C-alpha cells in the first residue's frame, strides 16, 4: 500500500511539474517570440556586418571626397590642383613659388632604375612619360614602387606616335589603350599624357579632354636626347633655359641624362627649388570654351 501511495504521489507530482512547465512555456512563449522578432530588428539596425559596410561606404565616400578635395595643409604635390584639360600645360604655379617639375620621356628601359635611384638619393621627385609597348611586367612593378615613392607615371602613347598626324578616332583609341595598359602594369591610374615630338592637333585637345588626360608640355628643353657626346651641355641648356617657379623641364631616359642628372638636381636645388612630381590629384580647371 505504501508503495502504491508513493507512486500516486510521484505521478501527481510529475503531472503538476509538467503542467507548471507547460504553463510557464505558454505564458512566456509570446514574449520569447516577440523578443526573437525584436532581436533581428535590433540586429538589422546594429548588425555588425551591416554597420561595418555602412561605415566602410561612408569612409570610402569620405576618402573619395578627400581625393578630390584634400586638406589645404599638406605638401603641394599631394594637394589637389586645378589644371586645364585640353590645354598644353608647360608651367604649374604653386603657392610656395619654389616648385619645379623634372619630366623624363621615352622610358621605361635600361636607365629607369638609375634615374629613380638618383632622384631618391637627392630627395627629389619627378614624372615619367612611358611608351606603352615598352612596359614589361617587371618594369611595371618597378613603376608601382616609383609611384609609391612619390613619382608620377604618365602616357607617351603606345608606340611613340605623332598624334598630331592622326585623326581623332585613332588618337582616342591609342590614348585609351595606353592609359589602360600602363595603369594595369603600374597598378595606378594614368592621368597625364605627353605627346611624342610635341605633336598635337585640334583632335588631340578634344580627345584628351574627353578622356580626362592632361596634356603636359614643357617650358625648358634640356635637349638631352641629342647630347650623347656633349652631356655637359644638358646642364648648360637648363641653366640658360629660363627656369622659373612652376617650370616643367623636359628630359629623357638616356645614358647622358643619367650621367648629368646629379649635377642638374644639385644646381636646381641650389637655386632653392623643390623638385616635385606633377600633382598626384589634378582636378579639372574650368576654362572658357573657344
Ligand atoms: Zn618621346
From TrEMBL:
EC number: 3.5.1.104
Keyword Membrane: yes
Gene Ontology biological process terms from the UniProt entry: carbohydrate metabolic process
Residue segments, region Disordered: 38-80
GO MF annotation list: hydrolase activity, acting on carbon-nitrogen (but not peptide) bonds
Keywords: Hydrolase, Membrane, Transmembrane, Transmembrane helix
Biased composition range(s): Polar residues: 38-53
Transmembrane segments: 9-28
Protein name per Swiss-Prot or TrEMBL: Peptidoglycan-N-acetylglucosamine deacetylase
